[in-house]
User: What shape does this take?
Amino acid sequence: MTPIPSLLAGSLADFLDGVFAAIPRALSGFVFLGLAYVTVRVVLALVRTSIGRLYVDDRELVGDLLVTVIAVFLWFGVALTFLKIVGMGDIAASLGTAVGFIALGVSYALSEMIEDTVAGIYLLKDPDFNPGYRVEAKGVTGTVAAIELRKTRIDTDGGDRIVMANREIESRWTHDVPDAGVGSGND
Assistant: This one.
């Protein structure tokens, strides 16, 4: 039987060996985090500037959504790489796989919301579908009051405001185009 003092001394020695072996990995990990922080901030600033030029005024929401999605992917990659650097590669691989399955389940559960958002992006980019335009969609005729990422608000001729999911509108709608010759001075 091993005496307790030698057992404690052996355990303490093993613990200190593990700590000393982990210090270089931890320092490498923290240096990586510092560099990754600066890099991600610069990349996101460039992306935000580029997307900000494409999506202005009432379309800023689309740009903000794109920047947020890019930021989530970048930071997730940083987290997985950090885990790999500090010697937890198996945890990083498991975490990446688990998040993939969770994302698959969430995307399935939110498929209609995602469909609304994608349709909203298309509607926001469409030059023939803007606030103030008269449209007909799903049996509703009126003036577009607001276009949001998930919903569009249409004011009917009867004074009602109809809120419709973008996926219902984007699939089939018509635009009332005023006669170009009337009042344009082109006789």
